[in-house]
Design goal:
This protein is mostly helical. It is built from six helices and two strands. Strands 1-2 form a two-stranded antiparallel ribbon. The longest helix is centred in the middle third of the chain and has 97 residues.
């Protein structure tokens, strides 16, 4: 690919035109705008990473698996610890990006200062060139008019001289001729002065034009070099930005790999067995409650829960009264009619 140069493509045949200068200045201004946008983008990315890191760190302090036990508790603890490690990774990335922002800002200022001096020089010379060109045009017009006036005066002198000679050069005609010759000399002097001024302005304009052309060429070369350096710089920085992301993702995967290793050891059978071992309450189940038929025994009967067997004294022979054990283990006898009395108490 043939690389063209700014210095070969930003001129104009119009002597006072600034279209090439304006195009380069606009390109440089657009580059500054783009540089600011890139700087802002990276700065905001760093801010997001910092906020994300803080959120992850806060999350790592939250309760997780507080009621769990066994290998699943180990997994949850590992995940919480991994979140804390991830927060540090993103915090480091945020700082790396902030350092990159500083580099971008410094380079942007350097590019701007490199262009500023030569741009101001060309701009100043363009103003001088424009003013001198205006003066030169005006001087050229004045010189042309003075030249035409001198030619007219010569023609008038020649005509008057020929007429005077034709009539014998009378004194009156000679006096008139002298006036015309004096006027012609004055026109000649004015023409010479106008010519000197015009030539001086042309020479001065050419010196200014040559200086402007040199500075304009320097500006073209400087702007092209700055643009080349700017593009290369941002290409490298944006490449580095993607590498920062890749490294963070790689480190993040390494952290997650630690969690995966813990997860592979999660075993429901072992967790269940551990829970049984620590919290078991017994292996004997409650006995069945049996039904007792009141009518089959021919007497009052109740459904009682099965109680452990206790050796009791033999019951006394049946009487018209009911006998039972009191709370202190002695016998008590109650007549049938007393048992029907709700106010009766065997506790004396």
């Amino acid at each position: 690919m043939v690389v063209q140069k700014f210095s070969e493509n930003f001129w104009s045949q119009d002597f006072t035109s600034t279209v090439g200068f304006d195009a380069l200045v606009k390109k440089n201004k657009d580059g500054k705008t783009s540089s600011k946008e890139i700087e802002y983008f990276i700065k905001e990315r760093a801010k997001i990473e910092d906020e994300y890191a803080k959120s992850l760190l806060k999350l790592s302090k939250a309760s997780l698996g507080s009621t769990e036990s066994g290998s699943l508790k180990d997994v949850l603890t590992s995940l919480r610890n991994n979140v804390e490690k991830l927060s540090y990774l993103h915090q480091d990335l945020s700082q790396i990006l902030l350092d990159q922002v500083d580099r971008v800002h410094a380079e942007r200022d350097k590019f701007s200062s490199q262009c500023k001096v030569v741009e101001e020089s060309v701009k100043r010379l363009q103003g001088i060139k424009k003013d001198l060109h205006k003066q030169t045009i005006a001087s050229s017009i004045s010189y042309q008019k003075k030249s035409e006036a001198y030619e007219v005066s010569i023609q008038a002198c020649n005509a008057e001289r020929a007429q005077a000679q034709s009539i014998g050069n009378p004194p009156k005609a000679l006096r008139e001729l002298e006036k015309l010759e004096a006027k012609s000399l004055k026109c000649k002097d004015e023409k010479i002065k106008a010519d000197d001024i015009y030539k001086g302005l042309v020479r001065q304009l050419e010196v200014t034009r040559a200086s402007w052309e040199t500075e304009m060429e320097t500006m073209c070369d400087t702007f092209q070099q700055v643009e080349n350096d700017r593009i290369l710089f941002f290409r490298n920085e944006l490449w580095a930005l993607t590498n920062f992301d890749s490294k963070t993702l790689f480190d993040q995967d390494q952290v997650n790999e630690e969690a995966r290793l813990v997860i592979t050891k999660c075993d429901p059978d072992s967790d269940i067995q551990e829970f049984i071992h620590v919290h078991q309450t017994g292996s004997v189940r409650p006995a069945q409650i049996l039904y007792e038929d009141f009518d089959a025994k021919g007497g009052r009967s109740t459904i009682r829960p099965t109680l452990p067997h206790v050796q009791r004294p033999a019951a006394p022979p049946p009487t018209s009264a009911s006998t039972f054990f009191t709370d202190n283990g002695t016998h008590a006898t109650v007549k049938d009619d007393e048992m029907l009395d709700p106010t009766y108490s065997s506790i004396g």
